[in-house]
Amino acid sequence: MPRHLPLRPMLLALSMIDASHALAATDDVPETQLQTVTVTGAPEQDSYTARATRSAGKLELSLRETPQSISVVSRALMDDFKLGNINQVLATTTGVTVEKVETSRTYYTARGFDIVNFQYDGVGMPVVFGNIQGDLDTALYERIDVVRGANGLMASTGNPSATVNFIRKRPTAGTQASASVTLGSWNERRIEGDVSTALNESGSVAGRAVLVHQQSDSYLDRYAPKKDVAYAVVDAHLSKDTLLTVGHTYETNRDKGPMWGALPLYYTDGTPTNYPVGTSTSAKWSRWDTTTHSTFAELNHNLGQGWHVQGTLNYITDKSDSDLQYVYGTPVKGVGGGLHAYPSQYGADQKQTLADLAVDGKFMLGGRQHDLAFGYSWSRSKLSDFSNYGQGIGTELPGQTAFDGSYPMPTFDAAYDGSRYEDRRNTVYLATRFNLADDWKVLTGMNSTRARSSGASYGTSKYKSASKTTPYVGVVVDITRELSAYASHTQIFNPQSETDANGVPLDPVKGKTTEAGLKAALFDNKLNVSGAVFQTKQDNTAEQAGNIGAKAYYRGVNAESKGFEFDSSGELAKGWEASAGLTRLTSIKGDNGVTVRTYVPRTTLRANTTYRLPAEPKLKVGATLAWQSETSTDQEPGIRTVQPSYATLGLMVRYDIDKHLSLSLNLNNVTDKKYLTSLYWTQSLYAAPRNGSATLSWTY
């Protein structure tokens, strides 16, 4: 076979990405031209679980050997149910609640608290500026691990909710390629390509590239999101013991008609509002653009005798630019009015740099072999942002004009404000896994972090300096070859950037968390099952207390969370994959036993399953179910907004036309359930109604 032949899949996949410009045609292109396209890369593997992970520490352990609850969202699960962004992934994950407060900003919670720890390939990047902005695509990742509870060993802060670890795609040993085209509801068009191949004759240098283009209209009035993603990574074996990896990600979101804030939830007479699902407070001129560049470099070296060292550098820039309309006030039932305009231009420039040096290996003690990992992590995060406030702030919007987008674009010169501050963190970590006996393992260590910030935000000092050493201990006891019991305990330390009504940053969160449970690895480790009980006490947790204009302010609340959960993922039988989880928060109490954080559902159920029919092995069918219990938020005294419990159902079917080509159909929110996306804020919006997509996939 000629040596140039393996490059043909790469050229084909890249040519399909070029075709995205045709698919991404402007609105005046006839829709009939788009319906002839249909293409998507088949999963590289069918498993819904992982045999080993480093997400709970720098030591590679199986899920059963890890003394914390872990959920795995595999590439196969993401492909089967077309989970194209992080919100969709985490919405299918045990114990995680996606708090989509606007079209372009999202919070996440687990075990009653906000998720603020995110990692890329096990290296943390602190979220010091609040929420997640934009529509973060999942095409770059091989899988996503969610470690619930305080990850006190590897995260620079011991937040008791969860740590989300994004495992990036890497070059593969052989040439492989995939491409897909998706057409969906509201004129959705998505094209995706993924190519990996050797870059030199010896194969010592290999590369991989992922490209994505997606755009659509929306069920929300005037909203039209668009994004482009490009990812490239190169592995270079400098010697038999040294591997250099360099990668870069570019992601841009260009959103027309986004919402800043959301819908008012009650009328002046105290009764709840009930708008059409597509209602939006955006203006016709509203826009929100974000651009992210992320560059990383890793140097791995084998020191010999089971010891390894890895150095990692990450540099991320996030830029956003927007013209937005915030609507505030309380509407008058029947006649309208009561709402007011708050237009503003907002721009931000965030820069984050992180360096991490980690060493891991094995050592002998007492005639047994044990594991050790230690390292140092340093990060610097800078934010520079501005708000140019528009003329006409406070203008009343008569009738229903708050929802028709008709408010004229003002000049943005009424006032100016902004931020310029910096956050630095230094962390030393140590983890040791003692092999005390054939069936007894103890994982212990500590994390010592110092966090400092300086600068000012909207006229308020952001200075803070805090440090804390948090210990961690976990025990795993093998009951049988497949079943083990575990327990773990760690302390909590988390500096906060949220400010009170006077603009003063809240003091760091402190507390402790404990969990215990059982884990099983069944069917030759193809199925992982776990159950856990947990208890967390956390003091001074930021909770939104109100708004001054469009700006939220917070108060520190003390909270104690208790609950239990079950999680399973993997192969139940030949051709039958599933992941499922149930989380029950038996209580979240504040001072004097008062119930707090009522916007967090006390019970959540997640289930995802696919089955390849034995009589027709080319056909795969599946379903996904998400259910959560009632949530609520207090508005004015005596007024409470309630979102009753609800369930959403999704269905999928996939047919393999031949070994390279397959067609998938996905249907979401099958029952067309109407519900609010979040009660994290005192405003909200409605989730998407019934929608579907068709995807044609090609693989090599």
From TrEMBL:
Residues 1-24 form the signal peptide. NCBIfam families: TonB-siderophor (TIGR01783). It is a multi-pass membrane protein. Belongs to the TonB-dependent receptor family. It is found in: Cell outer membrane. This is TonB-dependent siderophore receptor. Residues 63-161 form the TonB-dependent receptor plug domain. The lineage of its organism: Bacteria, Pseudomonadati, Pseudomonadota, Betaproteobacteria, Burkholderiales. It comes from Duganella margarita. Pfam families: Plug, TonB_dep_Rec_b-barrel. InterPro entries: Beta-barrel_TonB (IPR000531), Beta-barrel_TonB_sf (IPR036942), Plug_dom (IPR012910), Plug_dom_sf (IPR037066), TonB-dep_rcpt-like (IPR039426), TonB_sidphr_rcpt (IPR010105). Keywords: Cell outer membrane, Membrane, Receptor, Signal, TonB box, Transmembrane, Transmembrane beta strand, Transport. It comes from the Bacteria. Residues 248-670 form the TonB-dependent receptor-like beta-barrel domain.
